[in-house]
Design a protein that fits this description.
The protein is of the alpha/beta class. The protein folds into three domains: 144 residues, no CATH class; 117 residues, NAD(P)-binding Rossmann-like Domain (Rossmann fold, 3-Layer(aba) Sandwich), CATH 3.40.50; 331 residues, NAD(P)-binding Rossmann-like Domain (Rossmann fold), CATH 3.40.50.720. It is 45% helix and 15% strand. It is built from 20 helices and 22 strands. It has a nine-stranded mixed beta sheet with strand order 10-9-8-11-12-13-18-22-21, sandwiched between helices. 38% of the residues are buried. About 1% of the residues have low confidence.
Length: 634
Amino acid sequence: MIKNLLFKLIDRYASNVVVLVVDIFLVCLAFVLAYTVRFNASLNFETELLLYQIPLIGVVALVSFVTVGSYRGIIRHTGTRDAFNVFVGVTLMSIITAVFVLLNSAFGLFSWFTIPKSIVIIHYLISVILLVTSRFVFKAFYEIISSDIDEIINVLIYGAGDSGMITYGALNRDTKNNYQVVGFMDDDRRKVGKKIDRIEIYYSEKITREFIAKHEIDEIIISIQNLKSEKLLYLTDKLLALGVQIKIVPPLTKWIGNDFEANQIKQVKIEDLLDRKPIRIDNPIINRDVKNKVILVTGAAGSIGSEISRQLSNYEYEQLILVDQAESALYDLQQELVHKNKSNFIAIVADVRDFTRMQDIFSTYKPSKVYHAAAYKHVPLMEVSPYEAVKINIGGTKNIADLAVAHEVDRFVMVSTDKAVNPTNVMGATKRVAEMYISCLSNNKEHTTKFTTTRFGNVLGSNGSVIPLFKKQIENGGPLTVTHKDITRYFMTIPEACQLVLEAGTMGNGGEIYIFDMGKSVKIYNIAKRMIHLSGLRYPEDIDIKITGLRPGEKLYEELLANGENTTATYHEKIMIAATQAINPEKIGKKIEELCTQNDATDNAMVVRLLKDIVPEYISNNSIFENLDTPIKN
């Protein structure tokens, strides 16, 4: 209790003014000591002259220290830079004093200021030693009294280079948190054992759980710039195993005002660990392509649709039409855009399955670009509700695409999924049929609408995805549920996915399916373990992982290309065009028409059989429809 009170008093009252006063007092004391040293540790000199000389020395010191600003450093965070400032301040003071002494000696201005020249030199040396030592003594005193205060955060900085030094300085300057840098850690053996501002550099491979426990480390801050994603993944997996929080210094480009502060250090997020570089697209053509256009977004309240809407709202469109049948979610998006002072948009509650309602919207607003994101996407739910999957994923897409042609829309962009590739479930099969219907329209040369399809993997943080599920399970104390230990998925962030959709809306001549180079697929089991560690918990001591078995229609591994599909490059290294297999537009078009008509009978078995006929590669997996995997004879 007493230490806490003393800690607060020092923090509050050790102000710059107090430091300046103490510095001037020590300089005056050093002046007296200089005389005693000069006269062999005796007072065998005219001591009464000190009464005139000391005030002048004090004034000279005041002017010098204020000019240099040597008193402005935070004493409890004293470092080599502060010592250097003291050195410069005392040097300036001694130069001014020496000038006074020489002028007075030459012209005999003041009899009371006859100071031996050796005193100036001795005073200079004693002042430097006294002022620098006092700062480090005070810092050591502060560290002693604060060593067992609960608020202290013990930190290791990963990286003993320039970025590590900048991070160290930012932590020292931080006034909101009491960071205590215990040491630096680095992969370079040549740096090991050396010290930075009295803080030792340790070899990263020697940092163990025992070391962490001994030094009571709370956090490890990764301060290496331009760190490759695979290296970050490796480091994070290794460091999380030590049972500490892992944080990361953002890239230089994200520093506020090109300066770095401790509050910019962030927790490592799961999207930082995708084992690939973030995909960034900055295409001025997008602005030109949507400028002064009426744009329609279906499924606008969903995870993808809402982010597409947010990104579009930053451009100079004429009007933005947001359509979704989810009233509450659409209202939330509407209020978000209003709060951000976005204008010229309208939110409409409507269902893409309702052709009449959609036709009214097209007739009223006459959009020239359509982003179609409305769909049912949850595999297990659609496996037991094929009627709904066909109704919205195929029927809804058909409605919007047909209306786009009828109303001479310039560009239609459809959001698809990697589950449409060699589908093993109803949801994936319906999305593949939707892709095929778009291809049929693209092959029709009697209209001018350009159709584009985007195909990508799982989206981090989207509604119903694995990340929000894991977060909720962690909040509830676990366990985390994974369907199979070896199951893998491709992942991207919501902004990345939506950048792809907007970029695709400017590319090609129509009929293309664009896919991302999404790097490596990631094991869901590994993501679960990382999320446990990132939450500050231990696996399996605090939270375990339960293997539940594959769900109906679920694959172990997703694919971005079907059998027989290849890719061709585009002008963006991360975007490719899938060279899809040729289809018979007239034949496929008729089968899709029949499927939509037969779906009204709500006969699930018949609907799935028709799906399998249209998509021969659709082979059910762990599903009640496995017995239907026999093609229909024409």
